[in-house]
From TrEMBL:
Residues 14-25 have a biased composition (Polar residues). Belongs to the BACURD family. It holds the Pfam family BTB_2. Residues 39-139 form the BTB domain. The lineage of its organism: Eukaryota, Metazoa, Chordata, Craniata, Vertebrata. This is Potassium channel tetramerization domain containing 13. InterPro entries: BACURD1-3, BTB/POZ_dom, SKP1/BTB/POZ_sf, T1-type_BTB. Residues 1-30 are annotated as: Disordered. One of its GO terms (biological process) is proteasome-mediated ubiquitin-dependent protein catabolic process. One of its GO terms (molecular function) is ubiquitin-protein transferase activity. GO terms for cellular component: Cul3-RING ubiquitin ligase complex. Gene3D superfamilies: Potassium Channel Kv1.1, Chain A.
């Protein structure tokens, strides 16, 4: 081969190498820049397509924020979709948590565990803590459901300060807690008592028998005052005693069969809901239902000076 041909071939190889290096460098630069300068993002998560904003993905110090600011390399297909090699089943839930700061979680333990794993992978710590708290509640309820004894559970959470509280709310909340302690002393050994301080409910009683929830008494309502919303806590002592006595029929399995009647049937002539109380039935499985009693769920309340009218609207 002549010297001229050799030089020409070497020059061509050098030029091709330079072009390849330039293209590779350009691709790497594009990948390392992440989504800087973008406002909207198209995400393909295991075949599940999502359209959102960089602002939403950057709300928490997570893997998704790192992807947006270029801290984590991403793969972008020819149509501009950011491809994430994860199952997309629960990714919408992750996005909604970033958008709203809270999200309803699955009640089934296996699904909740799947959400937790996704939250841990994306390093969304707020959702991780939300899942862990929900798991504790589910474990507690599951334990109540497996118990051979009747169960009384009081869920209280004074830390829920979304609204201010009415003047009597704190007193009534303490009365509910004191009543729980009295019931523990009175029915010790016959009923399993569980006090739960986790969750969104400020004051709610649940009653279990034969491994299922029999009734629920919610003691909290929202007062729509003239200037701001307030949280009102009631103390339906008679109703709580009644439901506690009702579940004693399920002690030692005595509630099974046609003879398993309520000691005090809340829908019979022996009891009354009282003013401002309402009762709901929710299907649990087959013809089994849960009695849900809400004390003054919807209230129009004006707490002005003495002698002025107070209006309650059910």
């Amino acid at each position: 081969m002549s010297a001229e041909a050799s030089v020409g071939s070497h020059a061509a190889d050098s030029a091709q190498s330079a072009v390849s290096h330039s293209a590779c460098h350009s691709t790497d630069e594009h990948r390392n820049q992440g989504l800087l300068g973008s406002k909207y993002v198209k995400l393909n998560v295991g075949g599940s397509l999502h359209y959102t904003t960089v602002q939403t993905l950057s709300k928490e110090d997570s893997l998704l924020r790192s992807i947006c600011n270029g801290g984590t390399e991403v793969t972008i297909d020819s149509e501009g979709w950011v491809v994430l090699d994860r199952c997309g089943r629960h990714f919408g839930l992750v996005l909604n948590f970033l958008r709203d700061g809270s999200v309803p979680l699955p009640e089934e333990h296996r699904e909740l565990d799947e959400v937790l794993k996704e939250a841990q992978y994306y390093r969304v710590q707020g959702l991780v803590q939300h899942c862990l708290s929900a798991m504790q509640r589910i474990t507690l309820i599951y334990s109540c459901s497996l118990s051979l004894q009747p169960v009384v559970k009081l869920q209280n959470n004074r830390g829920n300060n979304k609204y201010s509280y009415t003047s009597n709310s704190d007193d009534n909340l303490l009365k509910n807690i004191e009543l729980f302690d009295k019931l523990v002393l009175r029915f010790n050994g016959r009923v399993l008592f569980v006090k739960d301080v986790l969750g969104d409910e400020i004051c709610c009683w649940s009653f279990y028998g034969e491994g299922r929830k029999i009734a629920e008494v919610c003691c909290t309502s929202i007062v729509y005052a003239t200037e701001k919303k307030q949280t009102k806590v009631e103390f339906p002592e008679a109703r709580i005693f009644e439901e506690t006595l009702n579940i004693l029929i399920y002690e030692n399995g005595r509630g099974s069969g046609p003879g398993g009647l309520h000691l005090l049937d809340s829908r019979g002539s022996g009891s009354s809901l009282g003013a401002g109380q309402s009762e709901e039935e929710g299907a649990v499985g087959g013809d089994r239902r849960v009695r849900r009693i809400h004390v003054r769920r919807h209230i129009m309340h004006d707490e002005r000076g003495h002698g002025q009218q107070t209006v309650y609207k059910d």
